[in-house]
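Researcher: Structure prediction, please.
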Amino acid sequence: MLKPPRASVPCNGCTLCCKGDLIVLHPEDGDDPSQYETYVERSPLTGKPVLALMRNAKNECVYLGHDGCTIHERAPLICREFDCRRMYKALDRKTRRRAISTGWMTKDILDAGRKRLHTLENEDAPPASHRQLPAA
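Model: Predicted structure follows.
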């Protein structure tokens, strides 16, 4: 399966998406769970069990190193396609609040997306992640 291109986000050293959030694998979209340290967690979106990247004692992805992602070249789909700017833009205020309250996303990540909105080149581009919060 062809890997989608990595989202081009001006992170400038930001690693908020690696901290605190559940990083879910999607084998149906080409992620190979045998390539990662994983654990089973209940999805805050669906309540169903999902396979996620292991986290350390600080609740960070175990693959987050001092200089950023240590598995950048083989990162899971969600890491390759995530764009905090497009996520912020795609969610209305009510949905952003629900995302935070359910643990689907942290306020810090949404704030980072809001701060970087001005860097989006194509305002009409769809959100980088097709994993949307289900309707209430």
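Model: Strands lie at 38-42, 49-53, 64-65, 68-69.
Researcher: Thanks, that helps.
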